[in-house]
Amino acid sequence: MAEIIEGSIYDFPKYYDLLFGSDWKAEFDFVQECFRDYGRKSTKRLFEPACGTGRLLIKLAQAGYEVSGNDLNEKAIDFCNDRLERFGFDRSTRVEDMSDFKVKKKYDAAFNLINTFRHLPTEKAAVAHLQCMAAALAKGGIYALGIHLEPTVGEPMQEESWSARRGNLGITSYMWSKGIDRKKRMEHLGVTLDIYTPTRHRRIVDHMEYRTYRYSQFQSLLKKVPEFRVEEVFDFAYDINQPHEITEASEDVVFVLKRV
Q: What is the pLDDT of residue 154?
Protein backbone atom coordinates (compact mmCIF):
# COMPACT_ATOMS: atom_id res chain seq x y z
CA MET A 1 0.00 0.00 0.00
CA ALA A 2 1.32 3.43 -0.93
CA GLU A 3 2.49 5.98 1.61
CA ILE A 4 0.49 9.15 0.86
CA ILE A 5 2.26 12.52 0.88
CA GLU A 6 0.22 15.67 0.29
CA GLY A 7 2.29 18.52 -1.14
CA SER A 8 3.62 20.26 -4.21
CA ILE A 9 5.37 18.11 -6.78
CA TYR A 10 7.80 21.02 -7.20
CA ASP A 11 9.10 20.37 -3.68
CA PHE A 12 10.52 17.04 -4.87
CA PRO A 13 13.03 18.15 -7.53
CA LYS A 14 14.73 14.76 -7.84
CA TYR A 15 11.46 13.11 -8.85
CA TYR A 16 10.25 16.04 -10.93
CA ASP A 17 13.50 16.14 -12.86
CA LEU A 18 13.42 12.45 -13.67
CA LEU A 19 9.81 12.61 -14.81
CA PHE A 20 10.10 15.71 -16.99
CA GLY A 21 13.78 15.46 -17.86
CA SER A 22 13.67 12.04 -19.49
CA ASP A 23 12.19 13.49 -22.71
CA TRP A 24 14.58 16.44 -23.12
CA LYS A 25 16.11 15.69 -26.53
CA ALA A 26 13.22 16.78 -28.76
CA GLU A 27 12.89 20.09 -26.92
CA PHE A 28 16.67 20.58 -26.85
CA ASP A 29 16.89 20.18 -30.62
CA PHE A 30 13.79 22.28 -31.21
CA VAL A 31 14.88 25.37 -29.29
CA GLN A 32 18.24 25.38 -31.04
CA GLU A 33 16.52 25.14 -34.40
CA CYS A 34 14.32 28.07 -33.37
CA PHE A 35 17.43 30.08 -32.48
CA ARG A 36 18.88 29.28 -35.90
CA ASP A 37 15.77 29.96 -37.99
CA TYR A 38 14.13 32.84 -36.10
CA GLY A 39 16.61 34.28 -33.62
CA ARG A 40 19.63 36.52 -33.56
CA LYS A 41 22.58 35.50 -35.72
CA SER A 42 24.86 34.83 -32.77
CA THR A 43 22.50 33.50 -30.12
CA LYS A 44 24.62 32.76 -27.07
CA ARG A 45 22.91 33.96 -23.88
CA LEU A 46 19.74 32.07 -22.88
CA PHE A 47 17.13 32.63 -20.21
CA GLU A 48 14.40 30.30 -18.93
CA PRO A 49 11.67 31.77 -16.73
CA ALA A 50 10.15 29.26 -14.31
CA CYS A 51 13.13 27.03 -15.04
CA GLY A 52 12.44 24.52 -12.27
CA THR A 53 15.24 21.97 -12.03
CA GLY A 54 16.88 23.24 -15.21
CA ARG A 55 16.50 20.01 -17.16
CA LEU A 56 17.13 21.88 -20.43
CA LEU A 57 19.46 24.53 -19.03
CA ILE A 58 22.12 21.97 -18.12
CA LYS A 59 21.99 20.41 -21.58
CA LEU A 60 22.24 23.82 -23.26
CA ALA A 61 25.10 24.85 -20.96
CA GLN A 62 26.95 21.69 -21.97
CA ALA A 63 26.29 22.62 -25.61
CA GLY A 64 28.16 25.89 -25.09
CA TYR A 65 25.44 28.39 -24.28
CA GLU A 66 25.54 30.82 -21.36
CA VAL A 67 22.39 30.01 -19.40
CA SER A 68 20.34 31.58 -16.63
CA GLY A 69 16.82 31.40 -15.27
CA ASN A 70 14.48 31.95 -12.36
CA ASP A 71 11.80 30.12 -10.42
CA LEU A 72 9.71 30.68 -7.29
CA ASN A 73 10.59 27.30 -5.79
CA GLU A 74 13.77 27.47 -3.73
CA LYS A 75 14.23 23.68 -3.70
CA ALA A 76 14.12 23.52 -7.49
CA ILE A 77 16.60 26.39 -7.81
CA ASP A 78 19.00 24.74 -5.35
CA PHE A 79 18.77 21.51 -7.35
CA CYS A 80 19.38 23.38 -10.61
CA ASN A 81 22.32 25.41 -9.31
CA ASP A 82 23.91 22.40 -7.61
CA ARG A 83 23.87 20.52 -10.90
CA LEU A 84 25.21 23.46 -12.88
CA GLU A 85 28.03 23.83 -10.37
CA ARG A 86 28.74 20.10 -10.36
CA PHE A 87 29.38 20.25 -14.11
CA GLY A 88 31.57 23.34 -13.84
CA PHE A 89 29.07 26.10 -14.64
CA ASP A 90 28.00 29.17 -12.67
CA ARG A 91 25.14 28.99 -10.19
CA SER A 92 23.19 31.21 -12.55
CA THR A 93 19.53 30.64 -11.62
CA ARG A 94 17.75 32.49 -8.85
CA VAL A 95 14.56 32.55 -6.81
CA GLU A 96 12.32 35.14 -8.47
CA ASP A 97 8.78 35.75 -9.62
CA MET A 98 8.52 35.24 -13.39
CA SER A 99 6.17 38.23 -13.56
CA ASP A 100 8.37 40.60 -11.51
CA PHE A 101 12.07 40.58 -12.30
CA LYS A 102 14.81 42.53 -14.07
CA VAL A 103 18.06 41.44 -15.67
CA LYS A 104 21.39 43.25 -15.68
CA LYS A 105 22.35 42.19 -19.20
CA LYS A 106 19.94 41.33 -22.01
CA TYR A 107 19.60 37.81 -23.39
CA ASP A 108 19.59 36.58 -26.97
CA ALA A 109 16.75 34.08 -26.54
CA ALA A 110 14.42 32.57 -23.97
CA PHE A 111 12.13 29.57 -23.70
CA ASN A 112 9.36 28.18 -21.50
CA LEU A 113 7.95 25.08 -23.12
CA ILE A 114 5.84 23.05 -20.71
CA ASN A 115 2.81 25.20 -19.92
CA THR A 116 4.25 26.86 -16.79
CA PHE A 117 3.03 30.19 -18.13
CA ARG A 118 -0.51 29.16 -17.17
CA HIS A 119 0.42 29.21 -13.48
CA LEU A 120 0.16 33.00 -13.72
CA PRO A 121 -3.33 33.48 -12.27
CA THR A 122 -4.47 36.79 -13.79
CA GLU A 123 -4.29 38.84 -16.96
CA LYS A 124 -2.26 41.44 -15.05
CA ALA A 125 0.35 38.84 -14.07
CA ALA A 126 0.51 37.43 -17.60
CA VAL A 127 1.03 40.90 -19.11
CA ALA A 128 3.68 41.67 -16.47
CA HIS A 129 5.50 38.44 -17.33
CA LEU A 130 5.58 39.21 -21.05
CA GLN A 131 6.76 42.74 -20.31
CA CYS A 132 9.55 41.38 -18.12
CA MET A 133 10.54 38.99 -20.88
CA ALA A 134 10.51 41.73 -23.50
CA ALA A 135 12.75 43.85 -21.27
CA ALA A 136 15.09 40.88 -20.74
CA LEU A 137 15.61 40.20 -24.45
CA ALA A 138 17.75 42.05 -26.96
CA LYS A 139 15.96 43.22 -30.09
CA GLY A 140 15.61 40.37 -32.52
CA GLY A 141 15.70 37.83 -29.72
CA ILE A 142 13.04 35.14 -29.52
CA TYR A 143 10.91 33.69 -26.76
CA ALA A 144 9.61 30.15 -27.39
CA LEU A 145 6.48 29.90 -25.24
CA GLY A 146 4.61 26.62 -24.93
CA ILE A 147 0.98 26.70 -23.81
CA HIS A 148 -2.05 24.43 -23.67
CA LEU A 149 -4.93 26.22 -25.36
CA GLU A 150 -8.53 25.37 -24.60
CA PRO A 151 -10.14 24.11 -27.82
CA THR A 152 -13.53 25.51 -28.80
CA VAL A 153 -14.59 22.44 -30.79
CA GLY A 154 -14.23 18.76 -30.05
CA GLU A 155 -13.52 17.11 -26.73
CA PRO A 156 -10.67 18.71 -24.76
CA MET A 157 -7.96 16.55 -23.24
CA GLN A 158 -9.12 15.72 -19.70
CA GLU A 159 -6.25 13.60 -18.39
CA GLU A 160 -2.75 12.43 -19.15
CA SER A 161 -0.25 10.01 -17.67
CA TRP A 162 3.41 9.24 -18.29
CA SER A 163 6.25 7.35 -16.66
CA ALA A 164 10.02 7.48 -16.34
CA ARG A 165 12.66 5.22 -14.85
CA ARG A 166 16.29 5.49 -13.78
CA GLY A 167 17.90 2.42 -12.25
CA ASN A 168 15.70 1.13 -9.42
CA LEU A 169 13.63 4.33 -9.28
CA GLY A 170 10.41 4.46 -11.26
CA ILE A 171 7.84 7.27 -11.35
CA THR A 172 4.38 7.43 -12.85
CA SER A 173 2.48 10.71 -13.12
CA TYR A 174 -1.24 11.14 -13.55
CA MET A 175 -2.92 14.52 -14.11
CA TRP A 176 -6.62 15.16 -14.57
CA SER A 177 -8.96 18.11 -14.84
CA LYS A 178 -11.31 18.64 -11.90
CA GLY A 179 -13.23 21.34 -13.72
CA ILE A 180 -13.00 24.98 -14.82
CA ASP A 181 -14.15 28.12 -13.02
CA ARG A 182 -15.36 30.10 -16.04
CA LYS A 183 -15.70 33.38 -14.16
CA LYS A 184 -12.08 33.33 -12.98
CA ARG A 185 -10.80 31.36 -16.01
CA MET A 186 -9.07 28.88 -13.72
CA GLU A 187 -8.80 25.16 -14.36
CA HIS A 188 -8.46 22.97 -11.28
CA LEU A 189 -6.15 20.00 -11.76
CA GLY A 190 -5.37 16.95 -9.67
CA VAL A 191 -1.87 15.47 -9.85
CA THR A 192 -0.36 12.32 -8.40
CA LEU A 193 3.19 11.03 -8.61
CA ASP A 194 3.66 7.36 -7.78
CA ILE A 195 7.26 6.70 -6.77
CA TYR A 196 8.48 3.11 -6.83
CA THR A 197 11.69 1.57 -5.49
CA PRO A 198 12.28 -2.16 -4.88
CA THR A 199 11.11 -1.78 -1.26
CA ARG A 200 8.79 1.22 -1.20
CA HIS A 201 5.79 2.83 -2.89
CA ARG A 202 5.00 6.49 -2.16
CA ARG A 203 2.33 8.69 -3.72
CA ILE A 204 2.58 12.49 -3.82
CA VAL A 205 -0.86 14.10 -4.11
CA ASP A 206 -1.00 17.68 -5.41
CA HIS A 207 -3.54 20.22 -6.61
CA MET A 208 -2.77 22.84 -9.27
CA GLU A 209 -4.60 25.77 -10.78
CA TYR A 210 -3.94 26.89 -14.34
CA ARG A 211 -5.38 29.94 -16.07
CA THR A 212 -7.32 28.99 -19.19
CA TYR A 213 -6.64 30.42 -22.64
CA ARG A 214 -8.65 30.11 -25.78
CA TYR A 215 -6.71 31.24 -28.83
CA SER A 216 -8.65 34.48 -29.07
CA GLN A 217 -7.85 35.24 -25.43
CA PHE A 218 -4.15 34.62 -25.97
CA GLN A 219 -4.20 36.84 -29.05
CA SER A 220 -5.84 39.58 -26.97
CA LEU A 221 -3.13 39.19 -24.34
CA LEU A 222 -0.33 39.54 -26.89
CA LYS A 223 -1.82 42.78 -28.18
CA LYS A 224 -1.14 44.29 -24.77
CA VAL A 225 2.61 43.68 -25.20
CA PRO A 226 3.49 45.13 -28.63
CA GLU A 227 7.19 44.50 -28.02
CA PHE A 228 6.51 40.92 -29.18
CA ARG A 229 5.22 39.64 -32.49
CA VAL A 230 4.43 36.03 -33.41
CA GLU A 231 7.02 34.67 -35.83
CA GLU A 232 5.69 31.11 -36.07
CA VAL A 233 3.62 28.51 -34.25
CA PHE A 234 4.38 24.82 -33.72
CA ASP A 235 2.77 21.97 -31.84
CA PHE A 236 4.32 19.73 -29.21
CA ALA A 237 5.75 17.41 -31.86
CA TYR A 238 8.59 19.98 -31.97
CA ASP A 239 9.13 19.51 -35.71
CA ILE A 240 10.77 22.69 -37.02
CA ASN A 241 9.77 21.69 -40.55
CA GLN A 242 6.07 21.44 -39.67
CA PRO A 243 4.62 24.77 -38.47
CA HIS A 244 1.18 24.45 -36.93
CA GLU A 245 -1.87 26.28 -38.22
CA ILE A 246 -4.05 27.00 -35.21
CA THR A 247 -7.65 25.82 -35.52
CA GLU A 248 -10.54 25.70 -33.07
CA ALA A 249 -9.35 22.22 -32.10
CA SER A 250 -5.73 23.17 -31.33
CA GLU A 251 -4.45 22.44 -27.83
CA ASP A 252 -0.69 22.10 -27.22
CA VAL A 253 1.21 24.79 -29.14
CA VAL A 254 4.49 26.71 -29.03
CA PHE A 255 4.49 30.36 -30.01
CA VAL A 256 7.81 31.68 -31.28
CA LEU A 257 7.68 35.31 -30.21
CA LYS A 258 10.20 37.84 -31.51
CA ARG A 259 11.31 40.93 -29.60
CA VAL A 260 10.83 43.87 -31.99
A: 78
Q: What is the mean pLDDT of residues 143-153?
A: 95
What does the pLDDT look like over 31-51, one tens digit per residue?
A: 999 999 999 999 999 999 999
**142: CATH:** 3.40.50.150
HEC string of 27-84? HHHHHHHHHHHHCCCCCCEEEEECCCCCCCHHHHHHCCCEEEEEECCHHHHHHHHHHH
Residue 46 lies in a domain: yes
Give the three-state DSSP class for 225: coil
CA-based nearest residue to 66, from 36, 37, 45: 45
Q: What is the DSSP string of 98-122?
A: TTB---SS-EEEEEE-SSGGGG--S
Residues whose CB is less than 8 angstroms from the CB of residue 8 and which lie 6 or more positions away in sequence, other chains included? 73, 206
Cα 101 to Cα 71: distance, rounded to the nearest angstrom:
11
- Which residue segment(s) compose the domain that 65 sits in? 10-150+212-259
Q: SS3 of 203, please?
A: strand
Assess whether pLDDT exceeds 80 at residue 22.
no
- Residue 21: predicted pLDDT: 83
Q: Is 209 within 8 Å of 14 (Cβ atoms)?
A: no
pLDDT band with cut points at 50, 70 and 90 for residue 155 = confident
| CA–CA gap between residue 36 and residue 108 (Å, rounded) | 12
User: Do residues 196 and 103 share a domain?
Assistant: no
Q: Same domain for 114 and 158?
A: no
